[in-house]
C-alpha cells in the first residue's frame, strides 16, 4: 500500500474513532477502530491511570462511560501522521463536547467541553489500520463536573 493511501486510512480511522461516541455505536464500531488490546490514557480528564485492556473489556465499558450524556460531538482535526512500516503515530487536535440531559443540568451548564490533543498509535492488521494506543491530553475544560456519572436515586 502507498504511503498516501496509508495516511488517508489513518485519518479516516480517527474519524471512525470519534463516531464511536457520537453515533453511540459501542458494540460494532470499536472492532473496526481498535486492535485486540488497546492502551488507554485519559488521565488528563478522568481520575484513572493509563491502562492496557483487551478490546472486549473496553467495549463493555464504553456504553457505561458515555451513558450520562444525551449527545456528544468530537471534532478531530490537524492530523500529523508518521508511518514506520506497520506502525504509525497520529497527533491530532480535538474539541469534544458532551451534553447532559436537561434534568441533570438542573438549570446550570449542560455541556462538558474538552479541548486538547490526541497522541495515538496504530498498527497495520490484516483488516487494515487499528488504534493500539489512545492518549488524550486536555489543555482546556469547561464544566468538568459534568464528566462524573449521573447520581443515582
**What is the helix fraction of residues, given as a range?**
25-40%
Report the average pLDDT across residues: 94
Question: What general form does the structure show?
Answer: globular
In angstroms, what separates the terminal alpha carbons?
54 Å
- Rg is 16 Å
Largest β sheet strand count, sense and barrel closure: 6 strands, mixed
**How many DSSP H or I helices?**
4
Q: Which regions are unreliable across 5 or more consecutive residues at pLDDT < 50?
A: none
A few lines on this structure:
The chain is built from 4 helices and 6 strands; from the N terminus they run H-H-E-E-H-E-E-H-E-E. It is α+β, with helices and mostly antiparallel strands and 153 residues long. It has a 6-stranded mixed beta sheet with strand order 2-1-6-5-4-3.
What does this structure look like?
With 153 residues, the protein is an alpha+beta fold. It contains 4 helices and 6 strands; from the N terminus they run H-H-E-E-H-E-E-H-E-E. The protein has helices at residues 3-22, 29-33, 55-66, 102-105; strands at residues 34-41, 51-54, 71-84, 87-99, 111-125, 128-142. Strands 2-1-6-5-4-3 form a 6-stranded mixed β-sheet. A hairpin with a 2-residue loop joins strand 3 and strand 4.
